[in-house]
Amino acid sequence: LTPLLPHLDRRNRGMRTRLGCLSHKSDSYNDFTAILPDKPNRALKRLSTEEATRWADSFDVLLSHKYGLAAFRAFLKTEFSEENLEFWLACEDFKKTRSAAKLASKAQRIFEEFIDVQAPREVNIDFQTRELTRRNMQEPSLTCFDQAQGKVHSLMEKDSYPRFLRSKIYTDLLSQTQRRLS
Protein backbone atom coordinates (compact mmCIF):
# COMPACT_ATOMS: atom_id res chain seq x y z
CA LEU A 1 0.00 0.00 0.00
CA THR A 2 2.83 2.44 0.80
CA PRO A 3 4.16 2.57 -2.81
CA LEU A 4 0.66 3.58 -3.96
CA LEU A 5 0.42 6.59 -1.66
CA PRO A 6 2.42 9.07 -3.80
CA HIS A 7 0.35 8.03 -6.83
CA LEU A 8 -2.91 8.51 -4.94
CA ASP A 9 -1.71 11.84 -3.56
CA ARG A 10 -1.03 13.09 -7.10
CA ARG A 11 -4.52 12.04 -8.18
CA ASN A 12 -6.07 13.76 -5.16
CA ARG A 13 -4.16 16.97 -5.93
CA GLY A 14 -5.42 16.86 -9.52
CA MET A 15 -8.99 16.34 -8.34
CA ARG A 16 -8.70 19.14 -5.77
CA THR A 17 -7.43 21.43 -8.51
CA ARG A 18 -10.33 20.53 -10.78
CA LEU A 19 -12.91 20.92 -8.01
CA GLY A 20 -11.36 24.17 -6.81
CA CYS A 21 -11.73 25.63 -10.28
CA LEU A 22 -15.48 25.02 -10.26
CA SER A 23 -16.09 27.99 -8.02
CA HIS A 24 -14.47 30.56 -10.31
CA LYS A 25 -15.37 29.59 -13.86
CA SER A 26 -16.55 32.41 -16.05
CA ASP A 27 -16.33 33.21 -19.71
CA SER A 28 -15.82 36.88 -18.98
CA TYR A 29 -12.82 38.76 -17.69
CA ASN A 30 -13.29 42.42 -16.96
CA ASP A 31 -10.35 42.24 -14.58
CA PHE A 32 -7.43 40.65 -16.39
CA THR A 33 -5.26 40.31 -13.30
CA ALA A 34 -6.16 36.61 -13.16
CA ILE A 35 -4.90 35.77 -16.63
CA LEU A 36 -1.97 38.01 -17.41
CA PRO A 37 1.44 36.95 -16.12
CA ASP A 38 3.76 39.25 -14.19
CA LYS A 39 2.24 42.61 -13.32
CA PRO A 40 -1.20 42.49 -15.03
CA ASN A 41 -1.87 46.23 -15.20
CA ARG A 42 1.51 46.94 -16.73
CA ALA A 43 1.13 43.91 -19.02
CA LEU A 44 -2.25 45.08 -20.28
CA LYS A 45 -0.80 48.53 -20.97
CA ARG A 46 2.01 46.95 -22.99
CA LEU A 47 -0.33 44.67 -24.96
CA SER A 48 -1.31 46.42 -28.16
CA THR A 49 -4.53 45.90 -30.05
CA GLU A 50 -2.41 44.82 -33.03
CA GLU A 51 -0.71 42.09 -30.99
CA ALA A 52 -4.00 40.78 -29.59
CA THR A 53 -5.56 40.93 -33.06
CA ARG A 54 -2.65 38.90 -34.50
CA TRP A 55 -3.62 36.03 -32.21
CA ALA A 56 -6.48 35.41 -34.65
CA ASP A 57 -3.99 34.93 -37.53
CA SER A 58 -3.06 31.44 -36.42
CA PHE A 59 -3.07 29.17 -33.42
CA ASP A 60 0.74 29.08 -33.37
CA VAL A 61 0.90 32.89 -33.25
CA LEU A 62 -1.35 32.76 -30.18
CA LEU A 63 0.80 30.09 -28.53
CA SER A 64 4.01 32.03 -29.19
CA HIS A 65 2.80 35.17 -27.38
CA LYS A 66 3.04 35.04 -23.58
CA TYR A 67 -0.13 37.08 -23.03
CA GLY A 68 -1.95 35.13 -25.74
CA LEU A 69 -0.93 31.92 -24.03
CA ALA A 70 -2.18 33.28 -20.68
CA ALA A 71 -5.52 34.37 -22.16
CA PHE A 72 -5.95 31.02 -23.93
CA ARG A 73 -5.14 29.16 -20.69
CA ALA A 74 -7.80 31.21 -18.87
CA PHE A 75 -10.31 30.35 -21.59
CA LEU A 76 -9.48 26.64 -21.40
CA LYS A 77 -10.06 26.77 -17.65
CA THR A 78 -13.62 27.96 -18.32
CA GLU A 79 -14.08 24.85 -20.46
CA PHE A 80 -12.34 22.55 -17.98
CA SER A 81 -9.80 21.55 -20.62
CA GLU A 82 -6.60 23.32 -19.57
CA GLU A 83 -4.88 19.93 -19.32
CA ASN A 84 -4.52 19.99 -23.11
CA LEU A 85 -2.43 23.16 -23.05
CA GLU A 86 -0.52 22.04 -19.97
CA PHE A 87 0.37 18.77 -21.71
CA TRP A 88 1.44 20.59 -24.88
CA LEU A 89 3.64 22.95 -22.81
CA ALA A 90 5.10 20.04 -20.82
CA CYS A 91 6.06 18.38 -24.12
CA GLU A 92 7.67 21.58 -25.39
CA ASP A 93 9.69 21.78 -22.18
CA PHE A 94 10.51 18.06 -22.38
CA LYS A 95 12.00 18.49 -25.87
CA LYS A 96 14.54 20.91 -24.38
CA THR A 97 15.85 18.26 -21.95
CA ARG A 98 19.58 17.78 -22.50
CA SER A 99 20.36 15.52 -19.57
CA ALA A 100 19.94 11.83 -20.36
CA ALA A 101 19.52 11.21 -16.63
CA LYS A 102 16.50 13.56 -16.46
CA LEU A 103 14.92 12.39 -19.71
CA ALA A 104 13.40 9.15 -18.38
CA SER A 105 12.08 10.67 -15.15
CA LYS A 106 10.54 13.67 -16.96
CA ALA A 107 8.97 11.35 -19.54
CA GLN A 108 7.51 9.17 -16.79
CA ARG A 109 6.10 12.21 -14.98
CA ILE A 110 4.41 13.49 -18.16
CA PHE A 111 3.05 10.05 -18.99
CA GLU A 112 1.60 9.54 -15.50
CA GLU A 113 0.09 13.02 -15.32
CA PHE A 114 -1.42 13.30 -18.83
CA ILE A 115 -1.35 10.09 -20.88
CA ASP A 116 -1.96 7.10 -18.62
CA VAL A 117 -5.55 5.91 -18.33
CA GLN A 118 -7.11 7.66 -15.32
CA ALA A 119 -4.21 10.14 -15.15
CA PRO A 120 -5.06 13.12 -12.92
CA ARG A 121 -5.05 15.46 -15.95
CA GLU A 122 -5.68 12.93 -18.70
CA VAL A 123 -5.74 14.36 -22.22
CA ASN A 124 -8.23 13.18 -24.79
CA ILE A 125 -6.29 11.02 -27.26
CA ASP A 126 -7.27 7.88 -29.12
CA PHE A 127 -6.33 4.38 -27.99
CA GLN A 128 -3.70 3.87 -30.73
CA THR A 129 -1.87 7.08 -29.82
CA ARG A 130 -1.98 6.21 -26.13
CA GLU A 131 -0.57 2.74 -26.82
CA LEU A 132 2.14 4.06 -29.14
CA THR A 133 3.17 6.52 -26.45
CA ARG A 134 3.16 3.72 -23.86
CA ARG A 135 5.51 1.70 -26.12
CA ASN A 136 7.71 4.77 -26.63
CA MET A 137 8.11 4.96 -22.86
CA GLN A 138 10.13 1.72 -22.90
CA GLU A 139 13.02 3.73 -24.34
CA PRO A 140 12.14 7.40 -23.80
CA SER A 141 13.54 9.86 -26.32
CA LEU A 142 12.93 13.52 -27.07
CA THR A 143 10.32 12.42 -29.63
CA CYS A 144 8.37 9.91 -27.51
CA PHE A 145 5.39 12.27 -27.10
CA ASP A 146 5.38 13.71 -30.63
CA GLN A 147 2.28 11.91 -31.89
CA ALA A 148 0.27 12.56 -28.72
CA GLN A 149 1.38 16.19 -28.65
CA GLY A 150 0.42 16.58 -32.31
CA LYS A 151 -3.04 15.14 -31.67
CA VAL A 152 -3.61 17.47 -28.71
CA HIS A 153 -2.32 20.48 -30.69
CA SER A 154 -4.67 19.61 -33.54
CA LEU A 155 -7.60 19.18 -31.15
CA MET A 156 -6.97 22.57 -29.56
CA GLU A 157 -6.45 24.25 -32.94
CA LYS A 158 -9.61 22.83 -34.52
CA ASP A 159 -11.86 22.87 -31.47
CA SER A 160 -10.83 25.20 -28.63
CA TYR A 161 -9.03 27.91 -30.61
CA PRO A 162 -12.05 28.95 -32.76
CA ARG A 163 -14.22 29.10 -29.62
CA PHE A 164 -11.52 31.17 -27.88
CA LEU A 165 -11.60 33.71 -30.72
CA ARG A 166 -15.38 34.03 -30.26
CA SER A 167 -15.19 34.03 -26.45
CA LYS A 168 -15.97 36.91 -24.16
CA ILE A 169 -12.46 36.59 -22.70
CA TYR A 170 -10.87 37.43 -26.06
CA THR A 171 -13.41 40.05 -27.12
CA ASP A 172 -13.20 41.77 -23.72
CA LEU A 173 -9.41 41.80 -23.92
CA LEU A 174 -9.53 43.34 -27.40
CA SER A 175 -12.02 45.93 -26.18
CA GLN A 176 -9.78 46.88 -23.28
CA THR A 177 -6.76 47.35 -25.54
CA GLN A 178 -8.84 49.46 -27.94
CA ARG A 179 -10.30 51.59 -25.12
CA ARG A 180 -6.80 52.42 -23.99
CA LEU A 181 -6.18 54.04 -27.36
CA SER A 182 -9.18 56.40 -27.07
From TrEMBL:
Provide the GO biological process annotations.
negative regulation of signal transduction
Tell me the gene name: Rgs8
Task: Domain (RGS): give its ranges.
Answer: 58-174
InterPro entries, A to Z: RGS, RGS_RGS8, RGS_sf, RGS_subdom1/3, RGS_subdomain_2
Topology within the bilayer? Peripheral membrane protein
- Name by which UniProt lists this protein: Regulator of G-protein signaling 8
Q: Name one Pfam family in it.
A: RGS
Primary localization? membrane
Example GO CC term: the record gives:
perikaryon
Q: Which UniProt keywords apply?
A: Cell membrane, Cell projection, Membrane, Nucleus, Signal transduction inhibitor
Keyword set includes Nucleus: yes
Tell me the organism's taxonomic lineage: Eukaryota, Metazoa, Chordata, Craniata, Vertebrata
Keyword Cell membrane attributed: yes
| Compartment(s) | Cell membrane; Cell projection, Dendrite; Nucleus; Perikaryon
